[in-house]
Amino acid sequence: MPTPAELREQLIRNFNDAPRERFVRAPRYDSETASLTKGTAAKKLGAGFDIVAPGMMSCPYHLHHAEEEMFIVLQGEGTLRVAGELVPIKAGDVITIPPGPEYPHHIINTSDAPLHYLSISTQAAPEICEYPDSGKVGAFAPGLRLLQRREAGLDYWDGEP
């Protein structure tokens, strides 16, 4: 039988205490992220705590073919770019993004203060992501991370005997 301390380690993370990593790629990207499920007993859910600097983004505009996502805005305000539209978001908003090409998305901090939100996803694998602004396609599975431009694809029979 696990002890309360062991159960806490396996099942609980505090987003205020979780170690964060900063990602900066000028001129558009500046965010801090903490994984809330890495090292836990979670098998099908992923969660993170994100802080996006004023005027910045945390990731490129993209869509998932398998993974479903949810974002919970904890503090601040910004803009959800989704399906080609700009939608204002603020603290208290819960955003749901189903998989599929209908909802390419990303969050932009269009305010003067940091934007804090939780990112939750189904961690479906294998996963195919598309990036409409750059024309990239990514294939992700355990042991595989492949990114290329859509137009760089090969013929199905290329290299086959």
UniProtKB/TrEMBL annotation:
Q: Name one Pfam family in it.
A: Cupin_2
- List the InterPro entries: Cupin_2, GPI/OXD, RmlC-like_jellyroll, RmlC_Cupin_sf
Key word Metal-binding present: yes
Instruction: Give the keywords, sorted.
Output: Metal-binding
Domain spans labelled Cupin type-2: 51-120
Q: What is this protein called?
A: Cupin domain-containing protein
